[in-house]
What does this fold into?
Amino acid sequence: SFNESTGSLNRSYNDISEHENGIYVIVRSRPLSTKENRASEPSIVSFPGNGRILVEGFQTIGGSNGPKSKLFSFNVVFEPASTQEDIFQYSGIKKLIEMAAEGFNTTCFCYGQTGSGKTHTLTGPPGMFFNKRIEPFSADHGLVFRSFMYLFRLVQQRQDLHFVLKASFLEIYNEKVIDLLNPGTVRKPLDVRWSRKARNFYVDNLFMVDCEELDDLQAVLEEGMKNRTVGSHNMNECSSRSHTMLTVYITSEQQISEDGVFITKQGKINFVDLAGSEMTKKTMSEGKTLEEANNINKSLMVLGYCIASLSDPKKRKGHIPYRDSKLTKLLSDSLAGTGVTLMIACISPARSNASETISTLRYAARAKKIKTKPVIVMFHRRFKVFLDNY
Ligand code: ADP
Ligand code: MG
It folds into this structure.
């Protein structure tokens, strides 16, 4: 069913029942912090089992009817005592990496208020990459590095396929796309363009690093994390307002006939550390103009609109505003239903964070309703060639 002479792009539907053809949503609660413990803050979050989370004893704004409680249900939930390795083993990320290696566009994104553990979950505790290089491996290493290790093991096992791995790392701050890897263009915004051939958005001139070894991927992670800080005046302010996206591009090539027909599959995995979710509310409550809002967190707001539309059966087939922000453009293939998405909702158990925790869990519950139809991005070619343009 492919056009051999032109080697044109084929997209085939694949059934993946493991992901129930939807966005896979998990929740991680961090422990109470030292500060919260010192202030004797109670935890309002408990885990009755079967992917359920109970939030109780919180007060709604202006609520006069006493403490409220609410029960949520997700694919998997992680209690505060969960380790980084637990998240890696049971979050579904391994399946995501396997699918990326098979040619799917996949995304793992962390959502939650500032301080809820998004960066900790993805990359590890603060300072992980600034003070020392952690050798060779520690319990603190986050999901990204664990995924790199898993991916390399996978690639080495498949001797029948020829793999090429590349990586990029960008930041979206004030709706500007900044390359965190290319020193020449650091802090110089890049354009997001539409590729007619790949039917996908991509970042023009984004630096792509060839990654032949695990060390190369680790270097990408370290370099990007360092550049993110170096370029900002106020690290906290910046990391709560910006989104980062580390992408690993996985090309595999397999010869399927003696006379030189190759199948090339192009998958990728995006690791996205989103801006603090409290930013959306802040923007709205401060009554900022649209333009000001654009400059703060348009991407996060548009992501919210996209998720709301996609999760509503009545709106799903209508207009989804992917084009309205940089982030949603770059995630459109993951959200639109041709990709596979893992959302990690990060929450704080402290009572003082109750309203943000409830709002994150509501957002996550909505995202769970999104239906997808993942497809493999695949080319059939007469000649052995690698395609650079994602
Ligand atoms: P965010 O990126 O969502 O703003 P961070 O990942 O920076 O939040 O986490 C805030 C603080 O809480 C950090 O000091 C981090 O190390 C700590 N923390 C977050 N999650 C955990 C966890 N699961 N276990 C221990 N400490 C955590
Ligand atoms: Mg962070």
About this structure: The chain has a mean pLDDT of 81.
